Amino acid sequence: MTLSPISLSSSYTTTISQPHHCSLFNTTTSTTATSLNLKFCSLKPEPFAFTSLRHRSHHNHPFRRTHFNAISSALSNNGTAPKSFDYDLLIIGAGVGGHGAALHAVEKGLKTAVVEGDVVGGTCVNRGCVPSKALLAVSGRMRELRNDHHLKSLGIQVSNAGYDRQAVADHANNLASKIRGNLTNSMKALGVDILTGFGTILGPQKVKIGSSNNIVTAKDIIIATGSVPFVPKGIEVDGKTVITSDHALKLETVPDWIAIVGSGYIGLEFSDVYTALGSEVTFVEALDQLMPGFDPEISKLAQRVLINPRNIDYHTGVFASKITPARVGKPVLIELIDAKTKEQKDTLEVDAALIATGRAPFTQGLGLENIDVTTQRGFVPVDERMRVIDANGSLVPHLYCIGDANGKMMLAHAASAQGISVVEQVTGRDHVLNHLSIPAACFTHPEISMVGLTEPQAREKGEKEGFDVSVAKTSFKANTKALAENEGEGLAKLIYRPDNGEILGVHIFGLHAADLIHEASNAIALGTRIQDIKFAVHAHPTLSEVLDELFKSAKAG
Questions:
Q1: For residue 361, is the peptide bond before it cis, meaning its omega torsion is within 30 degrees of 0?
Q2: Which residues contact 422 (CB under 8 A, 6 or more apart)?
Q3: Are 216 and 195 in contact (CB under 8 A)?
Q4: Does the predicted TM-score (pTM) go above 0.70?
Q5: How does strand 312-316 pair with strand 387-389?
Q6: Could you tell me whether strands 395-401 and 214-223 are parallel, antiparallel, or unpaired per DSSP bridges?
Q7: 174, 228, 207, 194: which is closest to 120 by C-alpha?
Q8: pLDDT in tens, 424-446
Q9: Cα–Cα dist 325/332, whole Å
Q10: Residue 540 annotated in active site
């Protein structure tokens, strides 16, 4: 799970008035930064070009800016830009996106600083991807040790498998601390200055650090402030019995019965953790089906494996209109209303409730009004090159926004890729990131991964643009390595154009799906056609042969 990646669950798409979007993939293709639910921007594919790390003078690198065909009114409204700069690049936010941009900037010879008002690593490292993987590692082991049928089929006998809740929580916390330290040390070792305090933009190329009068100037500025858990109206979070993912990752308790509001990536992964540790789970989902952001066929199979056999029930087509934390002697109360009619449906009484309705951009207090930038539902409007757009629709010179704060694709690695793309631009090489090539994964047991379009999205695109869409599938049950592991439950699905062999999307549900997806994502990024990739050689016996068979089964002209 990549929490920064996870946008708002569709559980509240019809009622939220705050910043929101309803699936993992929300991108923009125009300078108005309009969010498109479940759509990708059609950006030209262009692979990254990386060079070896080397130290170069900060003053000898040729800077060249292209594409500024619109001049922002920010210069006239908010003072003049400085004539000299403290830094070549200043990044507001030291999460995964800011870190990736900083390291690439140093590689390109830029004098770089990051501003961090909280802790290095941002959401992913401290309250998201990293600690959640630690908990999911435990849930995976517990499932293996408690699956008597699976173990007996392998000739293994295990009894009385248990866990220490505090030790599990410590494992997650220690992992986050270690990765946070690694990120900090890597930036310091390369000469990146880490400036402590909240960054506020005062005007063109000027940022105030913290509450003091410490003002820093930079030739280019990147906003990389990330996101925070989104809590819909009517829900009272006490951090104990009604919690967000931030609280859940601390694993202070393992409730007997927990309701999870939202069945997207966050909800699915925590259902995996809680059920493995002994909890009963109830999903509350506004749409008529669970896992609304996934390819429908993958979602159907995943529900059969991840939901139905486990201690999980669910209510679909309902909103949690009000949630009251547990009081002395009283349980958590969840009032459910019909998502369409808004009529009262039911009241749940549970031990705890996890609000997994996604994340909202953290952009308040950035001083965007000082440069005439108006957020759209909290997101900073940007164009396809991550350049910030002001209230008049003009580009703000030397200002960029990456990651969750722009809402294009709320994934930690997408933020990093956007940051690297920006650095390429400010150092003279035009670069547009192809968001269709960025993979995503849900780290349940087994895992779910995807890249590109779902089948409905592809067919809609085909109808509009006049091309046919074909689908190929392979099963893990035909893979030797999967059978050796007794993990044959799984499916790989390829969506493509039969006329030219273009890969439109790949979706995988099965053992190590999160690792397998990268062959497909790299193929999309590089523009590799099915006619070529089907000749690639894969080691035998490996799970990678699932993809090998998938590409070979496709019929492209």
A1: no
A2: 101, 220, 222, 385, 386, 400, 402
A3: yes
A4: yes
A5: unpaired
A6: parallel
A7: 194
A8: 999 999 999 999 999 999 999 99
A9: 5
A10: yes
